[in-house]
Amino acid sequence: MIKKMLVVFILFGIVFSFTSFIVNQKNQKPPKLRTIIIDPGHGGADHGTHGLISTEKDVTLDISLKLGKAIKQEFPDIKVVFTRTSDELPGGGTDFRPALLVRADIANKAKGDLFICIHCNSNGKPAGGYYAKRVIGHKKAIRYIRKKKRTVTVPIYESYWVNNTRVGTETYIWKADRSGFKGTAISQTDEGEENMEDSTTALFDLNSPEAKMRAQLYEKKYFNNSALFATLVEEEFKKAGRESYGVKQRDEGIRVLQATGMPSVLIETGFLTNKEEEEYLNSDKGQDEIVANIIDALKAYKEQLEAPRSSGSVSISPLR
How far out from the chain centre does Cα 286 lie? Predict the structure, then answer.
């Protein structure tokens, strides 16, 4: 009798454990970050910003490849997709404009959960430094005005050397008033089936009112998530002692960010036009630190995404 009861208890325990496992498996939500798209800016005939010793296309590729490797090591379950892994524009060719659409198409077809675009910055002045002119006095000179000789006062100029001192980072998100483009991209990725919480229905008709409403909901959600991740990235740069200009939106928008149906950011990792910062961006030490900063931001972002629902806010720097 005791043996029979023992067998029954054992069987009951096995069944209960198996049932609990199945229930837990059903209740377990899929991870929020499954696929990350890494987009090295420029490439091929599109050199981007020029420094004294390097071009943007090469530096962004180096940093992006290291970032992809670090993500795979830190988050083995996350899939990494690159828009390019060589010195060639996505899709080939020499025109950067169609390449922007190819970048977005790669990201959307991969159903990315986060799009990270890596760039380097320029202040619009020659790399390293440049000569400028300033007025140091005035003198009298003869000039012909309406065919008549006149004595006039003219400035005396002096040329002087100006070091290009602008350094720092900034991270862009898409312009909020360009959200219509984002909604179209979101619909193309069919995000409704896989990511919408408390919903198991897919978007069968992407032009239906329901699909458009869902895309609008995702526009807001993805804008907030983009701002969150961008803020975390800039916070990590500041912790590392870098000059940070914060999170920004560009007046004309950024096409590749608007065309990707997922949270998306463009990280300006530093100024190639500054001699010292260019050396930093080209060094293993500098690139490894930038990658480590982004990885730390990614850890915090993932943790916040997967935490229980809570209200929070992030700040976005005013447009500049």
Answer: 18
Cα(230)–Cα(314) distance, integer angstroms: 10
Asked if residues 176 and 186 have their Cβ atoms less than 8 Å apart, the reply is: no
pLDDT over 70 (residue 143) = yes
Q: How many residues does the chain have?
A: 320
Three-state secondary structure call for residue 92: coil
Among all chains, which residue has been given the structure tokens 């290009």?
164
Own/partner pairs, 184-189, CB within 8 angstroms, 24+ separation: 184/215, 185/104, 185/108, 185/258, 185/259, 185/260, 185/261, 186/215, 186/218, 186/219, 186/222, 186/261, 186/262, 187/211, 187/212, 187/215, 187/261, 188/108, 188/261, 189/108, 189/111, 189/112, 189/261, 189/262
| CA–CA distance, 297 with 317 (Å, rounded to integer) | 18
Please give the average per-residue pLDDT across 283-299, as a whole number: 98
Return the DSSP state at 166.
-
Measured at the CA of 44, the angle between CA 279 and CA 38, to 5 degrees, comes to 70
Using DSSP's 3-state secondary structure scheme, residue 282 falls into helix
Supply the mean pLDDT for the chain.
83
Give me the helices (H) in the chain, please: 2-27, 56-74, 96-109, 179-188, 191-195, 209-239, 255-258, 275-282, 284-306
Q: Which amino acid is at 268?
A: E
Q: What CA–CA distances, in Å, run from 56 to 83, 97, 100?
A: 16, 17, 16
3-state helix, strand, coil in the chain (%, to 5): 45, 25, 30
Query: How far is it, in rounded angstroms, from Cα 185 to Cα 223?
Result: 13
**Interatomic CA distance for residues 248 and 265, integer angstroms:** 10
Smallest CA-to-CA distance from 293 within 246, 226, 232, 243 is with 232
Q: How confident is the model at residue 103 (pLDDT cuts 50, 70, 90)?
A: very high
Nearest to 231 by CA among 317, 291, 309, 308: 317
Neighbour count for residue 310 (Cβ, 10 Å): 6
Using CA atoms, how far residue 176 sits from 1, 253, 259, 315, in Å, is: 73, 8, 13, 14
